Amino acid sequence: MNSTWMTAGGSSRTSDTPYLTREGECPTKEWGSSQPLGHFYNAHDFIMNNPQFVGITPTGKTVFDYLEPYIVPGALMDSSARYPPPRCHPGTRLEIGRELKEWLNGDNVEDPMMWLFGSAGTGKSAVAQTFAEDCTKDKRHGASYFFSRTQGRNETNPVVATLAYQFSVNCPKYKSILTDRLVDDPQLFKKALPVQFQEVIIKPFMKMQDDGPLKPLVVVLDGLDECAEERAQRELIRLIAKVVREYKNLPLVWLICSRPESHLKHEFTRIPQCGKQELAMDAETRDDVERYLRDELARIKRDDFVLADLSEWPMEEDVLTILRAASSLFVFASTVIKYIDDPGGADPTKRLEALISFLKRNRKTITTNPLEGLDLLYLQILGDIPENVFPDTWRILAHLIDGTNSLRGSSARVLCNALRFDQQTFYNALRNIFSVVDVPSSQDVDHRSLRLYHASFQEFLTDPTRSGKYAIIRGEALTEVVKTCFFWHEIDTKHFHTNDGWDYELRTHNHASLPGLKWTSPETVNTISNKIAADSKQYFPRELTTSPITKKSEEFLCQLQILDFRYLIPAFTTFDLAQWIYQQEHDSSKLLRTEPINDIDLKLLEYMKLVMNEERVIPVSFPLDRVNMRRRKGGHIQYFFLGRDEKSVIIWVMHCIDAQSIHSLNADKKFSEECILQMRKELEQRGWPKYDIAVGSSDEEV
């Protein structure tokens, strides 16, 4: 079908030629050319007096035509790529919303830059989105950029162009200024980021400000930690810091939201013009999570014609189970709601039942992971850790997961030294997990300990079906802690306690500092040393005796093969250690034994019988039966040998009438009559029967 067209010169003709336009339209391209034509293409013989092109260049390109190749539409506040975006649930996050409005609407914005930070899953993006939407209603929203690694919005190169696009939409005067600038330099957005900041942000807004004071517009940057490179994140922060520092009258304020990663903390704390606001996981947040969860469950019930008639759904017990697991973590609650409210039409009652079973670790009948969204978040965080660094990170997390060892609750610097890390190695191992672990600054390491922000991260790590290659199996974590404790206990005893004598309960640590500590100061070295020595005394949880053999088990067994047991404090956990050694799939006969195999063992047995007067002494039977050991009538002794060659000891437990006690001897020297009498006296005080036979003297005396 033919149409009537107007040539650019004014005559009409019928044609399908592409460079012609419909009546009233302008041609856009010359045939065979990729270059657009102007609105006055081929026009002549007319005069324009003081023409003003608004948003259109003389070539016919609008400012948006120039911007389009360089922007990321998905990063906009109202982008379809983010629909529906995360928003604060009605009635939640009221306090932070109020504080942000006060920051923006104050008579004089003292901090033209605000850093809103919080651990992973606390709802930073929802706060940023809600604040940006509120600013739009008040005509104060200048531009936003929502970073996302998973959606490919993880580069800083398009940021300025994307902000400029929104400034042009929201502010006609800015659009006019930018249009003129792009006519002069069409390649502006191919230049370095600092140049773009100067030409596209600073100069246009300075020119606008020259015409009179303006209310500041808000720029929201969310998820800065999602950028691919730390260097790019730092550069963007420094460029914004330069803007607020050197151009104080510029009508822009900046809200930047991110996780509290170490390098970001370092950058923001050095900017005097930057306020800081934390999304803490406190009681108010827990209340907000509960409001959100209950409201959303009520919505699901209203929207389902079957559930609408079930007055008992959801059961209060189930709601409380979810709330206990979610605590103050918004992402946990939102993940739960997405799972129950399955868009595929699954039965919400069945989904809730599966979720509760999952949370109670009764997963035999569950085929899906209700917390898959949360797991993806944790996997992304751990995936940022370099492979060569992760073993160090793993060791730290292993100590945090084992809640039974004293080192876990020690200060961050004590734990750092216990792991034999220097300061740089310690913080390097932690730098990518600041969003899930509360890491004290170097100024607070002596007063604060490391802690996981949320229990869900520990549950994720200890479940290999969820955490995969990042898993921390509990048995492996316990073994790692035991390895650390035995290492320092041996160091302490060999250097400072070889002459402590019989009564180990009197052992103190008022001595010089342990050798090998890597991060101390003259003021803290003794405190750190004493704490490690006290907390690392022979620690062996009985739980390990039922744990499967792992690579960590093999490493610990190798450590024990060369361990000097002579001065270690004997404890009832020593029997658990012996049971564990017995269970290993190795030839452990030379390390653990009940019969003497060399001259040193014979000496050890002789010394023990000398002290105990050779009565009621029997070897331990492996595997250990603790119940039968306790049921034996009082007044007998059970023993075994532990260690290699001259580093061996004989360990025995005394079953008295009302109590048990454990002791050890090494073969360094024989005992004098005085020493033996003292030992016997102490044993009698602990309930052992009195001796009737006199003690003979020994060749070498202690």
From TrEMBL:
Polar residues composition-biased segments: 1-18
Pfam families: NPHP3_N (PF24883)
Swiss-Prot/TrEMBL keywords: Repeat
Occurrences of domain Nephrocystin 3-like N-terminal (ranges): 99-259
Database matches in Gene3D superfamilies: P-loop containing nucleotide triphosphate hydrolases
InterPro entries to which the protein is assigned, alphabetical: NPHP3-like_N, P-loop_NTPase
Annotated region described as Disordered, given as residue ranges: 1-31
Domain of life where this protein originates: Eukaryota
The protein's name: Nephrocystin 3-like N-terminal domain-containing protein
Source organism: Agaricus bisporus var. burnettii (strain JB137-S8 / ATCC MYA-4627 / FGSC 10392) (White button mushroom)
Lineage, opening ranks: Eukaryota, Fungi, Dikarya, Basidiomycota, Agaricomycotina
